Amino acid sequence: MADRNGSSRREFLKRSALAGCGALAASQLDLARALVARAEAGELTPAELYELNRLENTLYTACLGCNTGCGIKVKVLDGVAVKIDGNPYNPFTLHPHLPMTTDLSTAARLDGAICPKGQAAHQGAYDPYRIRKVLKRAGRRGENRWTSIPFDQAVDEIVKGGKLFAHVPGEEHRTVTGLEEVFALRDPKVFAEMGEDVAKLRKKAMTVEEFKAKHAANLRFLIDPDHPDFGPRNNQFVYFWGRKKGGRSEFAKRFLDAFGTVNAHGHTTVCQGSLYFACKAMSEQYAGDGFKDGQKFYWQADTENAEYVLFVGANLFDANYGPPNRSPRMTQRLADGSLKITVVDPRFSKLASRAPGSWVPVKPGTDAAFAMGMTRWIFEHQRYDARYLANANKAAAAADGESTWSNGAWLVKIGADGEPGGFLRASELGLRPAEVRTSQDGKQTRYEDLVVLRDGKPVAFDPNDEKEAVEGALFVDTALPSEQGPVKVKSALQLMREVASERTIAQNAALCGVAPEVIEQVAREFTSHGKKAAVDVHRGPAQHTNGFYAISALMNLNLLVGNFDWAGGMIAASTFNVDGTKTAAQPFDLKKLAPKPRKPFGLSVIRHDAKYEESTVFAGYPAKRNWWPLSSDVYEEILPSIQDAYPYPVKVVYSYMAAATYSLPAGQTNIRALQDLERVPLYFASDITVGPTSLYADYVFPDVHFLERWEMQGSHPNMPVKVQPVRTPVIGSPNEVVRVFGEEQPISYETLWLALAERLGLAGFGKDGFAPGRDLTRPDDFYVRLTANVATDGKQPVADASDEEVRVFLQSRRHLPRSVFDAARWERSAGPAWRKVVTVLTRGGRFDTAEKAYEGDHVANRYGKLINLYQEKTARAKDAFTGKHYLGMARYVPVTDTLGRDTRALEAGHDLQLITHKDVRMTKSRTITHPYLTAHLPENAILVNARDAKRLGLRSGQRVKVVSATNRRGVWDLGNGHEKPMIGKVAVVEGIRPGVVTFTLGHGVWGSGATAMVIDGATLEAAPSRQGGVHANAAMWIDPHLKNTCFIDKVGGSVSFYDTRVKLVPV
Amino acid sequence: MQPDIIVTMHEDLERALKKPPEQRRWVMLLDVRKCIGCHACTIACVSENKLPPHLYYRPVSDQERGKYPHVTRTFLPRPCMQCDEPRCVAACPAKGKGGATWKETEGVGAGTVPIDYAKCRGCGKCVAACPYGARTLDRGGYHSDGTPARQRYEAMPSYEYSKKWPREGEKPPVGRARKCHFCVHRLASGLLPQCITSCVGRAGYFGDENDPESLVAKVKKANRIQILEPAAGTAPRVYYVANEKLEVFHG
User: Does the beta-carbon distance from A354 to B33 stay under 8 Å?
Assistant: First the structure.
């Protein structure tokens, strides 16, 4: 095998001045020569013949077959990735995993377990439909006719704009605005000043006229001077992404900080947004004058220690972050009875199948009613943890050995209408006056104590007080005297009990379609295991129009037993830091190694973190589209909002690894939006194939496959071990090698950002981009430094790599071209942390030991803060369609459209409720390119209960079309003259609730080799293996008020995946 | 904290490999209660052994029983049973050691039923004879068929029976009978069979049944064991643990 990096390795060895290292390499070389000779003579032993477990052929990285990101070891022969297995150093594939101190040769002989997508992952890299050069559309958007053009030309065109599509009939005279012009405001000082005044504008502390007078000289930089809250024209650049992990996030942030746009949006709400944003609301911390710093995250059950878990809409053995890590923590315990579970799901999942008697098939969308029934039973039988719930602050929690506490005992003010509002402040009773506190960063904030009732008397307290423990009465419904007269108050727990009392258990059970006894039994079981019981929820309850409250209601059950941070309870993810801002020992603080950011300001085009009432476009209720004071990354808002130019028109759209048209419910609405040349004047995409969304782009830039690139994978909430899996190139890229900042590199996502930064002259990139002598001209300049940060985070850094490990590190990368791997360059980037970087990269990341995950009966990596039972911030926000306040206390609310209307009109004549699920062999749009998977699962099916099948005269294998009230023809209109009918094969089963039908995501794809395309005049025919199955998202309801968007959860942002009623029409 | 059973079985394997072949008895035990039907074993095996489309050494069936809402679902992994009384060997026209398939008595693979691709003529008699449907004729084909280009990884060799088998034209193993061999080539390198080490639910056990300290021997002893097709008298070396009677799910 050619040692293409021979020279750089020699250089490295010479400079490292490691005498032993060179000698070792020489002796290895002799060994290799001897081996070749014996092989030629046919004398190899079987062990010598097998090449896949050799250290030098083994590279560690992290999978991205799905977002679990399991650790993988990639076995490389002659530069080709031929086999993938689990990384035994990574706790996602071995339980417990090998400590990082284990030598490399031991690990090379031990394969961890990964799912079939990971086993097939190299097929995504070796996909004949991958694009290697930049493609520019030769026809209309979506026509799928392309011309390959030089990278530099494409970047120039995007930056400069002009009549870029004069070759397309109808676009001869269309002039496109380039990024250069959109990058209008450049002075960081003006950014800061205008940003501050826009904040005042929102709070009505300044009028538009005052703003215009004050900023007269700079109004030309604004999108609309009459609406300064739209922000600068820079906001007319919208960047959105599908799957993006750490590292690439920081890379993009660096560009966006320098460019100054607020429009950078992820895809969270198509996954389980309302789970994220309900938990964000629960994690908001009291900051003296309100709540802030809620984390966009969630908790999951510690399955390896729980005695009982109630899983609601969580598909563990097919998905759910993910089978390789969660299954080995459960299967033996399920088999021997040490773990009991209940599975609330309309579908009999693989999870339910492993625990006989565990299945509770509820009606989709009624999960909150189930939770409220349980809540009522728990109150009636006093099965809550009163000791936990009485704790009002940190000191009280600590005194009970608890690391978290709730606001259950806090007093909430009740309005004249009887509705709860904000928490009572101590100053309102004259208990303790408000004060001004100075925070660590020197900011002065107003601070007021809160109030509980203790022995009938109000007691002021600070929730974060670590010294003075304060407990409160659990159930309070009273009026307290104040100077302004009596103040009516209730404790949060009292509110919860009242809400739970609104319906009987039998009434809740009727909503769910289960027997009341089931709710009672589950509630009893859940409260029979102390802290070792958990309610673990996922997409099922989240992806409905009532998702936010359903998740909150279910998570509140966990608060009733106070199981957070307990072994066997609810736990949060814990990762080693990548951006160098955590400890002084980390060498590369990205905040310090960057120019002063242009602080982006103004409304985003999806109106997140913003209130309708505070905007200059407020025009009464209902608003044209929703506003999102509590949620962000609202995927379904991006393209339809752009199409509506609400609140403003945009100029340039960029999507990365995104398949919004495929993955969103009613994704066809996004095709319409992308084809609107006026509202989306310029659209470019980064993708590895021409996929179902990038098909509609003006330019598609090839990205590198995940086996060819860097990323910081992070972790998931079910993983108690602190980790940071590092994704690192293990094979070269087939992409065209281009020169950016004078450096050769295969075209990638980073290359594109770098080239745009180079053309726009953005500070913080290029030569001396980080600091004098520290360049940022290529991906590894960035990621080697991030890896150094990972290696040095925490109390102790990782150990330095030994000489032998350095040798293995170099030898195993011998096939990588210099444009990807250059040891000398990497060592220069890492500086003194180099050998620690090698330690991390030879193990696929950094992982604490399994032992360190727990301390006694708690997890070691704790959340350790307040968790809100009652959500003040939520209660203070308003519904942009009705003007009514959101609910601070979670409960069941029915499924409705955005205007709050029931769905009966849409249901009429459509008797089946459509849901979706995942099969472990598919991940939405990106696994159809993997033939090991498509050969095994050539097409999906529409699962129909046998009773429904009998009623409708359907049989297994029969082909049916899926139609709904908002897609009566049952087709995907691809907008290019082609239609893709939503026709799939029926599978008649018993394991689904009658009245509900489902299909797995991942089939029924267009683009990505599933449709023919023309490049440079030559036709690339479609692959039959990619055309199987059905994708029925286009049948999902379109909201009658929004008209170009699916049904949505107005509070938590989730799209509605499971509310649509359909009809199956035999074809 | 108990070690992962993969690690325990790996240690068992290292111990077993030090014993003389005739003193070992390789067996596999599949605890169906723990099989989550993820098909990782199936696909891992395809990748390890470079199997063409629609040829599987280690299929896992997924069968539903009962009436709503009282439903059960059984995932049944079915490798080659490496029978001590193999019908396939009896059916093969090129019998015996030095023939196309036989009951191995020597080396790392002692106890398994190998196929010599050089000797096999692809007559298919063994395929019909196997009561477990464990054998399939390799009819050629590549995973990139129907796409614009064949990919390099597809031509890279498999290491079955500790020989290199690059996939080229009509050369073996194309046209030959193929089946699971307990990954003897991996055992020879001190690695567990691919299906065992890729088992996400940890349902698969492998090792030397003659070693009472081995995990597979302990699990076998601690549970009620089932075999498939007991009436066939094939003496399979693959055991099952299950709550349900597996015979009804087979065939």
Answer: yes
- Among residues A985, A998, A925, which one has the least CA distance to residue A958? A985
d(Cα A116, Cα A68) in Å, to the nearest integer? 13
Q: How many helices (H) and strands (E) does chain B have?
A: 8, 7
In this predicted structure, what is the pLDDT of residue B247?
84
Q: Are A1026 and A1010 in contact (CB under 8 A)?
A: yes
B37 Cα to chain A: minimum distance (Å): 7
Give the type of residue at A10.
R
Flag residues of chain A having pLDDT under 70.
1-42
Q: Which residues contact B137 (CB under 8 A, 6 or more apart)?
A: B122, B124, B127, B175, B176, B177, B178
Per residue in B48-66, pLDDT (tens digit) is 999 999 999 999 999 999 9
CA distance linking residue A554 with residue A120, whole number of Å: 36
Cβ contacts (< 8 Å) between B4 and chain A: which residues? 94-97, 328
b/e sequence A531-544, b meaning 16+ C-beta within 10 Å? bbbbbbbbbbbbbb
Strand spans (E) along A896-1046: 912-917, 941-945, 959-964, 971-973, 979-981, 983-989, 996-1000, 1013-1015, 1018-1020
Give residues with Cβ within 8 angstroms of A41, minimum separation 6. none
Cβ neighbours for A891, distance < 8 A, ≥ 6 positions apart: A368, A372, A499, A502, A549, A553
d(CA B63, CA B193): 25
Under the phi-then-psi rule, with left for phi > 0, alpha for psi from -120 to 50, and beta for the rest, what region is A932?
alpha
User: What global pTM score does this model have?
Assistant: 0.96
User: How many other CB atoms are there within 10 angstroms of residue B39's CB atom?
Assistant: 29
Q: Among A528, A527, A508, A529, which Cα is nearest to A519's?
A: A508
Give me the residues paired with residue A135 across strands.
A148, A700
> Which residues of chain B are under the pLDDT cut of 70?
251
Buried b (16+ CB within 10 A) or exposed e, A383-404: bbbeebbbbbbbbbbbebebbb
Question: Would you state the structure tokens that stand for residue A165, as one six-digit string?
Answer: 């599509």
Q: How far apart are the C-alpha atoms of A209 and A194, rounded to whole Å? A: 14
Task: Spell out a b/e string for A207-246, using b for 16 or more CB atoms within 10 Å of the CB, else e.
Answer: eeeebeeebeebbebbbbbebbbbbbbbbbbbbbbbbbbb
CA distance A594 to A770: 6
Q: Give the residue from B42, B46, B47 with the most A CB atoms within 10 Å of its CB, the best one to mutate.
A: B47
Which of B71, B200, B201 is nearest residue A348 as measured by Cβ atoms? B71
How far apart CA A936 and CA A1028 sit, in angstroms, is 12
**How many angstroms separate the CA atoms of B234 and B29, rounded?**
16
What's the pLDDT tens digit per position in A866-884? 999 999 999 999 999 999 9
pLDDT of residue A36: 61
Give residue A423's Cα distance to chain centre. Answer: 32
Name which of B36, B56, B71, B199 to mutate to probe chain A: the one with the most chain A Cβ atoms within 10 A of its Cβ.
Answer: B36
CA distance A304 to B73: 24
**Strand partners of residue B26:** B208
**Among candidate residues A155, A685, A630, the one with its CA nearest the CA of residue A670:** A685
Closest by Cα among B59, B174, B142 to A1025: B142
CA–CA distance, A439 with A934 (Å, rounded to integer) = 56
**Beta carbons of A239 and A263 less than 8 angstroms apart:** yes
Token pair, residue A1002, equals 């991942």
**Phi and psi based region of residue B57 (left: phi greater than 0; alpha: psi -120 to 50; beta: remaining):** alpha
Closest of A560, A492, A549, A436 to residue A872, by C-alpha: A492
Contact B72 A353 (CB under 8 A): yes
Q: Can you point out the beta strands (E) in A805-899? A: 845-847, 854-855, 858-859, 866-867
A956, two tokens:
């297994």
Q: Do B68 and A116 touch (CB under 8 A)?
A: no
